[in-house]
Specification:
Blueprint (H helix, E strand, L loop, with lengths): L2 H6 L4 E6 L6 H15 L3 E6 L1 E2 L14 E3 L4 E5 L9 E12 L2 E10 L1 E3 L1 E2 L4 H11 L5 E6 L14 E7 L6 H15 L9 H8 L3 E4 L5 E3 L11 H5 L6 E4 L3 E2 H10 L7 E4 L5 E2 L2 H10 L1 E4 L5 E7 L10 H11 L4 E3 L7
Parallel strand pairs: 1-10, 1-11, 2-5, 2-10, 11-19, 14-16, 15-17, 16-18, 19-20
Antiparallel strand pairs: 3-9, 4-8, 5-7, 6-7, 12-13, 12-14
């Protein structure tokens, strides 16, 4: 059993999320599936969105198939059931729908490839994973492009980040972007959030908190566009912004400007999947503002694909080595490499 599989099998549910298309996410999923089979672990699989199709629906480039063994269970749409070589038996319906139809629970009766098109909403994904856990010891959630919500700690126990040559022109660029994404996902937990602040964040609202845990709600439906009135609520006393939704680039810029007037400025979001800030601005923000989360994401590994779909190759050992040097706390592997 390889190190990646051994690490994943310590958990009951795990998300595999890609930094973009063609970063090797499907290869990582197949690696975990093979390891689970070798260990005799009952396996479940679903996705956020559609995956496992033979040709990429955006780029029209061929894609590796997802293979499931006999007795594995799968949560996918009715329209996807016949789009692989595996023979499937429907076990149950879920009452949850995506654009391709109702999500059903199916068991693999004859091993083969599958197309997975799972729930699109985070709450639905959480419910489907719970249903799969009735049949499986390990559930893998394949996080489709730009849908990193599968890695949220309210959804899965742990996450693996898939990266590759497709996201950057050279090793340094790929490593830099990947480290930034991993650090965002691993934003540390807050240590001094009061009950009022927690309740406000859980409701998806916006407000400010003082050092005694007292909260003033801000009457806005969203902070994503950084309405300037947010600055009016920030002060040396109320110097912690509670962001129940997304921490966006405009909001990060507002916080940067406010940090010159508000000493010890802080911001709290629900988890790292809610942070959507450009890497350079994110680094500047962290130098001026303490950003924390309610629930930190348990990122356990990074997988590397050194080849982009058009044949350009970066040195895999340099990619793995560069990431290991900067992220020593994580397992970093190329699943396609010998011993990966």
């Amino acid at each position: 059993m390889n190190d990646l599989t051994a690490l994943a099998l310590r958990h009951q549910s795990i998300a595999v999320v890609g930094m973009g298309k063609n970063t090797g996410k499907t290869v990582t999923v197949n690696c975990l599936v093979a390891g689970a089979v070798q260990a005799g672990i009952a396996l479940g699989l679903t996705s956020t969105g559609r995956d496992g199709e033979s040709t990429d629906i955006v780029s029209a480039l061929p894609k590796p198939a997802i293979y499931l063994p006999e007795k594995a269970v799968l949560a996918t749409s009715t329209a996807s059931l016949g789009r692989g070589t595996a023979r499937l038996e429907i076990l149950d319906t879920t009452g949850i729908y995506n654009a391709l139809g109702e999500i059903v629970i199916a068991r693999v009766r004859e091993a083969g490839s599958v197309e997975v098109s799972g729930p699109e909403r985070t709450g639905d994904l959480r419910a489907v994973i719970a249903r799969l856990q009735d049949y499986a010891q390990l559930v893998i959630a394949d996080g489709a492009i730009d849908r990193i919500a599968a890695s949220a700690p309210s959804v899965t126990d742990a996450a693996i980040l898939a990266t590759g040559a497709v996201i950057g022109r050279d090793v340094q660029k790929v490593v830099g972007l990947t480290v930034n994404a991993a650090r965002v996902l691993m934003t540390p937990a807050v240590s001094n959030l009061g009950e009022q602040g927690l309740a406000l964040l859980e409701q998806g609202k916006i407000g400010v908190q003082n050092q005694h845990g007292q909260v003033k709600p801000i009457p806005l439906t969203t902070a994503i566009d950084a309405p300037p009135e947010i600055s009016d609520y920030l002060s040396p006393d109320y110097n912690c912004l509670l962001v129940g939704g997304a921490l966006s680039d405009p909001l990060a810029e507002l916080l940067l400007q406010a940090s010159w007037k508000v000493p010890g400025l802080k911001a709290i979001v629900q988890d790292g999947t809610r942070i959507f800030v450009e890497p350079g601005r994110w680094q500047r923000l962290l130098r001026r503002v303490a950003v924390n989360v309610i629930r930190p994401i348990n990122l356990i590994a990074i997988t590397v694909n050194p080849v982009d779909p058009r044949g350009r190759r970066l040195p895999g050992r340099q990619l793995v080595g560069g990431l290991r040097e900067l992220m020593p706390e994580l397992l970093v592997v190329d699943p396609m490499a010998e011993g990966g």
